[in-house]
Amino acid sequence: MTMICRNSARGIILKEDAVILIHRLKNKKDYWVFPGGGVKKGESFVQALHRELWEELGITVTILSPLFTLHNQKEHRKQTDHFFLCTYREGTIGSGNGVEFTKRQHKNNQYRIELVESKRIAYLPLVPLKAKRTIMHILKRSS
d(Cα 42, Cα 39) in Å, to the nearest integer? Predict the structure, then answer.
């Protein structure tokens, strides 16, 4: 069987004393993720991140720096996620037109964009754990 390889770009987006996250409710699981998505052929990670954040969130950001890369492999799928530290620049959070947010959502698969206060991050089931630890460290340093 052929191995499917996917690259994605994800933003850890700061806005004042909060972080922009996506609250996922999927198959009775309740968790939070950082926005972003797949890199299309011919795109750089930065280009993909800007496109994905516009599609998903309806915002533009300033990318401050690359943070880390995570590799994950499950059965016949290999994924590499590239995380970037960003700050909100402009746009209306939640006005994105990505398919995840415009198609009819049902109770077993929901996406909710939320601006989460920094002090709440430690208590959320935010995945991946390395990204959660990184944002908590960044927030602690900046306070």
Answer: 8
